[in-house]
Amino acid sequence: EKGTYPHYMLKEIDEQPLVMRKIIQNYQDGEGALEIDSDIVKAMKDADRIYIIAAGTSYHAGLVGKQFIEKLAKIPVEVHISSEFGYNMPLLSEKPLFIFISQSGETADSRQVLVQVKEMGYKALTITNVPGSTLSREADYTLLLHAGPEIAVASTKAYTAQLAVLAILAEVTARGIGHEVDFDLVQELGIVATAMEALCDDKEEFESIAREYLTVTRNAFFIGRGIDFYVGLEGALKLKEISYIQAEGFAGGELKHGTIALIEEGTPVIALATQEFVNLSIRGNVKEVVARGANPCIISMSGLETDEDRFVIPEVHSLLTPLISVIPLQLISYYAALHRDCDVDKPRNLAKSVTVE
Ligand code: F6R
């Protein structure tokens, strides 16, 4: 039930800190260390390459998950859109492991790939919010998101839950292989939960950003580099699906190769700047669009901020920033949709789970 909330989406955004804490609890052993079923860790260790298959928001979580797994466990990862993979399968490695990410566990495009790779004799792990869902039953292994039912069509808490579970999977696999992990993920996810709370308490700020940048515009761009780019893709999808504003996420450096032609006087450009090693270069990209008239909204992280930033998120571990930086984007999309009189929880043309090809 949505209780006192006007929309499920807002309730589900607010639930994210709690979901983080539930995930930490559910994946801890008696001593407080993170733990994953040993068969899953073995399947990860045995793989020479991991193929993540997903659609929509879950695909965007997969892109960040690739960074987690490659940086911590040092296993190469490819991320594929399920509807493309089935018809256009890449050359596979010798010992692939397939990871399906699906909130509902029912997405037909993803299931089709699962059936194919099972027929080929490969192992599959499903990361889902729904125990007993089709993708969970048909895979060899399942990891649950523990996010509680997600009712709003626009996925919010499932995305951050997917990121947290992928981070845990990467960390436990890394330790299983014997790679040193130089931070305490339990502690860092706790810091993430606290930062999420602070952002959820700042709704007025995001409402005012939505009012200022998105009330009348036809389009909007999200830019970032590295994992900020992937979060930008998710921010653009959120905005498109519930506010019907044409929105696109771009890699900061790619703009000048064509997309910058779309920048006009007043075009909103939301830039994420949470990564120290690309802080200067993304700010350079913001200057490029401002010179063409864009209305920039820089969202940076504490420690990396400058006077020109519109919002500064609390500092969290540099790998985990997507768990935090997405929350302003979820809330900005929510308020933009509200201001434009859109049906936030049930946008036109969309269904919560897409069970047709
Ligand atoms: C976006 C959204 C969709 C889903 C996609 C995959 O907010 O909800 O893009 O992420 O349809 O759904 P699942 O994760 O259930 O496979």
UniProtKB/TrEMBL annotation:
EC number: 2.6.1.16
Annotated catalytic residues: K352
Catalytic activity: D-fructose 6-phosphate + L-glutamine = D-glucosamine 6-phosphate + L-glutamate
Limits of the SIS domain: 40-179, 209-347
Subcellular location: Cytoplasm
One Gene Ontology term of the molecular function aspect: glutamine-fructose-6-phosphate transaminase (isomerizing) activity
Keyword annotations from UniProtKB, A to Z: Aminotransferase, Cytoplasm, Glutamine amidotransferase, Repeat, Transferase
Assembly with partners or alone: Homodimer.
Function as written in the Swiss-Prot or TrEMBL entry: Catalyzes the first step in hexosamine metabolism, converting fructose-6P into glucosamine-6P using glutamine as a nitrogen source.
Protein name in UniProt: Glutamine--fructose-6-phosphate aminotransferase [isomerizing]
